[in-house]
Amino acid sequence: MKKRINIAIDGPSGVGKTVMSTMLAKKLEYKFLSSGSFYRVIAYNAILNNIDLENEQAVNDAWHIEDLHVTEDDKIIFKNEDVTLKIREDNISRGASSIAKFPSVREKVNKFIQTFGAKYKGIIVDGRDATYRILPDAEVKFFLWATPEVRAMRRVKQDHEMGIESKYEDVLESMKIRDYNDMNRAVDPLKVSEGSIEIDTSDMSIDENFEAMYQEVLKRL
């Protein structure tokens, strides 16, 4: 049986964590768990049940770790309902952003991912605190970086390809504000954790970035 390991990927907004996680999961035949999806599920549940999104205890008391399940084909099941598509709606996304700041909610989401990773070995997790809070015991930990200017250019290009109009200056300003907030927040700030492999992707193509990460993973398999 092939050795299977867990992988955690950190980094700022717009650096390509999700793209790299998806590519690695496909190549390695691993499961990609995006922590953001689970915050969407909790927000969906709160909104469905008319719970005040500012009430941390009520939001967190309304769900149990056992309610969540990820299927073989990556569908997210919550309380026996397939919510994979429902949690992509805009109002759910905004709700997820509100409740993701609650320490008790973050702790519970992390516990779910940690339990899943221990049971099913071979998962990839991304997030701004993936390497030191979500999966501190991951066998491979990455911290991806790129300058805000490069990330803003990539985001604008991506937006245009999706038919979304966005201005480079606005996106850049937004990135810088988000970086500052992420690095200076009191709970789980963005940082390079001990044991993380740092990769500056500023001058890398997607394929070059992937190859650099894939080679690091191979060293540990």
TrEMBL record:
EC number: 2.7.4.25
GO molecular function terms attached to this record: kinase activity
Localization, UniProt: Cytoplasm
Major location category of this protein: cytoplasm
Cytidylate kinase domain ranges (all copies): 7-217
Superkingdom of this protein's organism: Bacteria
Uppermost EC category: transferase
One matching Pfam family: Cytidylate_kin
InterPro entries named in the record: Cytidylate_kin, Cytidylate_kinase_dom, P-loop_NTPase
UniProt: ATP binding residues: 11-19
Catalyzed reactions per annotation: dCMP + ATP = dCDP + ADP; CMP + ATP = CDP + ADP
Any coiled-coil regions, as ranges: none
Chain segments annotated as transmembrane: none
Full protein name: Cytidylate kinase
Gene name of this polypeptide: cmk
